[in-house]
Amino acid sequence: MDSTQTHIVIIGGVAAGATAAARARRIDENAHITIIERGPYVSFANCGLPYFISRDIPKRSSLILQTPEGFLARYNVEVLLKHEAVSIDRAGKTVSVQSPSGMKSIPYDKLILAQGGNPVIPRIPGADAEHVFKVWTIPDMDAIHRFIDEKKPETAVVVGGGFIGLEMAEAFHARGIHTTIVELTGHLMPIMDTEFGRQIQNAFEEGGIQVRTSCSVESILPQTKDILLSGGERIKADIVLLSVGVSPETKLAREAGLSIGGSGGILVDNHLRTSDPDIYAAGDMIETVQIVSGKKVRVPLAGPANRQGRIAASNALGMNMEYKGALGTSIVKVLSYTAGITGLSEQAAKKEGFDTGVAIVHRNNHASYYPGAESISLKIVYDRKSGRLLGCEAFGKAGVDKRIDVCATAIQGGLTVSDLSELDLAYAPPYSSANDPLNMAAFVAMNHMSGMSPVATAEEVREAIKAGDALILDVRTYGEYAKGHVAGSLHIPVDELRDRCGEVPAKKALFLCSKDGFEGHIALRILMQSGFSNVKNITGGYKSIELIGGYSIESDSGSF
Fold first, then answer.
1. DSSP alpha helices (H): ranges in 86-180?
2. More exposed terminus of the chain, fewer Cβ within 10 Å: N or C?
3. Are 475 and 490 in contact (CB under 8 A)?
4. Which residues are bridge partners to 57 per DSSP?
């Protein structure tokens, strides 16, 4: 070992590890840098694996971002593939590595752990069958692709409705395989609120992908190629994809005596140092701060992992960079739709003890008079005491990504809903409206906070109706009301309300229902200025009522 060089050893060669190696070389041209990777590939695009299976990405080589030879030529970094780190001698500052040719010891001055995580394999009968897969690495992807080519499966079941599960369901669907998603919780994408999980489900079902929620897989039956669900239903599955979560790879760190956080990830400080000052950690395996709540959590996402790798390498070589945490900003393609979230959902904000307010709008993604306008559902979550923006969720065919990114920036900067209402966002008819849907959502929140136009969520209204002495006043048109309305609601179209205020019960709590919330705001202002005080507008209107569910709905054709 050359004592004149700083020896940097990085365990794990994908997102965080590969980024750390490249960053370390840019900082110190003389450092000796080694990547230890137990798999056969380094620096591959694991987020792209489902899109190769779907054939959206036609070339397998596109996913391999760098090779050992490329790392050596460009960065002068030694990459050891098919080498597994089996123990760390912290006192002697060496890593014991099992290589294809036997055990070896690799010394370090600074060590960076970047091993990521591993897919959780549920303990259910049949999970080890040859037609059951996970997708985490290039070999996993190759095995699935080869199985589809050779076995020509006609049916698929994806177990788990999170990011990878949704992407793989779409990939199977694109390959002409009849696909069903099974999700344990009440809706797909459990990190999002109910109304967004329901929209994702609707989009999949409209596209021909079946969805089963609130149930688990009891067993996988290889002989009959069936999946047995907890409710007794059997679903045909020539191929099964397990995607029920990711566990951090902490065995090496635990055995080395490094501290583990309450969330199960490696405990690091704001410089990404572990409990050993010469060992840093980055990526899916660490515990970090959720920026909005301030709580320590795991955020197994590629963006944070890459940024953490950069910071860990910088600090290992003497810099003083801080990692302030992550928002968990995420986005997923849902056939022709997109769903995204940043910060906290409504349910997460309530769980964290915030005085949680929400504003929901269902607006066109750009000016309605310009051809091609598509509806976008947008929900902002905020603290009612301070107005601070806590989170945002969106769903639609176009414009979801930019609204989520704007809100991620706003949350990172500590902006309030008042600030959001004043953002001067890019506008031209093909791209947005003079008041962007984000501005409109902020207006709703500000009107609620000021008392000018109080709102209630569809979920809150449902519970109030069940408790009694509350009434929904439906202010939609006659045609809209006839297609479907909440049983027992009073119907007065908003354009007739001024002349028919005398028909509205004065002593009942009133909840105004319009198509998407906008006309309800107009109706509320009419009523409040006519002497009604116990009145709230249902944010998101009838569309949110349909998405939340749990209401008794009637139409001209009967109840449902």
1. 138-151, 163-174
2. C
3. no
4. none
CB distance 356 to 449 below 8 Å: no
Beta strands in 171-242 (DSSP E): 178-183, 210-213, 217-221, 226-229, 234-236, 239-242
pLDDT-based confidence at 468, cuts 50/70/90?
A: confident
Burial class (CB in 10 A: 0-12, 13-18, 19+), 494: buried
CB 183 within 8 A of CB 189: no
With 0-12 CB in 10 A as exposed, 13-18 as middle and 19+ as buried, what is 11?
Answer: buried
Average pLDDT over residues 378-399: 97
Mean pLDDT (the chain) is 96
**Catalytic residue positions, numbered:** 47
Amino acid symbol at 315: N
Asked if the model's pLDDT at residue 508 lies above 60, the reply is yes
Which of 87, 92, 68 has the alpha carbon at shortest distance from 78? 68
Of 331, 458, 480, which is closest to residue 396 (Cα–Cα)?
331
The answer, as to whether pTM is greater than 0.90, is: yes
Distances (CA, A) of 87 to 92, 255, 257, 326: 12, 7, 11, 30
Task: Choose between 532 and 2: higher pLDDT.
Answer: 532
| pLDDT 10s digits, 156-170 | 999 999 999 999 999
Burial class (CB in 10 A: 0-12, 13-18, 19+), 465: buried
Provide mean pLDDT across the span 466-488: 94
312-315: long-range contacts, CB 8 A cutoff, minimum separation 24: 312/16, 312/20, 312/112, 312/114, 312/272, 312/280, 312/281, 312/282, 313/8, 313/19, 313/20, 313/21, 313/23, 313/24, 313/27, 313/112, 313/280, 314/23, 314/27, 315/271, 315/272, 315/273, 315/280
* CA distance to 197, 247, 345, per residue, from 516 (Å): 18, 40, 20
> Helix, strand, or coil here: 503?
helix
Predicted local distance difference test score (pLDDT) of residue 555: 87
Instruction: Judge whether residue 284 has pLDDT over 70.
Output: yes
Quickly count: other Cβ atoms within 10 Å of residue 363's Cβ. 25
Q: How far is CA 480 from CA 176, 338, 465, 477, 556, in A?
A: 37, 27, 21, 5, 11
Q: How many CA atoms lie within 13 A of 529 on its CB side?
A: 10
The gap from C-alpha 65 to its chain's centroid, in whole angstroms, comes to 25
| pLDDT value at 560 more than 60 | no
> Cβ(540)–Cβ(361) under 8 Å?
yes
**Which ranges of 207-301 does DSSP label H, i.e. alpha helix?**
251-255
Structure tokens at 369: 């008079």
Q: Is pLDDT of 3 > 70?
A: no
DSSP string, 52-86: HHTTSS--GGGGB---HHHHHHHH--EEEET-EEE
Owner of token pair 């136009």? 453
**Among the ranges given (175-184, 346-355, 502-511), the one the predictor scored with the smallest mean pLDDT:** 502-511
Alpha-carbon gap, residue 82 to 105, rounded angstroms: 15
Distance (Å, rounded) from C-alpha 304 to C-alpha 309?
A: 9
Q: Which pLDDT value is given to residue 506?
A: 87
Q: Find all residues with CB under 8 Å of 485, minimum gap 6, and list them.
A: 474, 476, 491, 513, 542, 553, 554, 555
Question: Residue 531 class from Cβ within 10 Å (0-12 exposed, 13-18 middle, 19+ buried)?
Answer: exposed
Q: What percent of the chain has pLDDT over 70?
A: 99
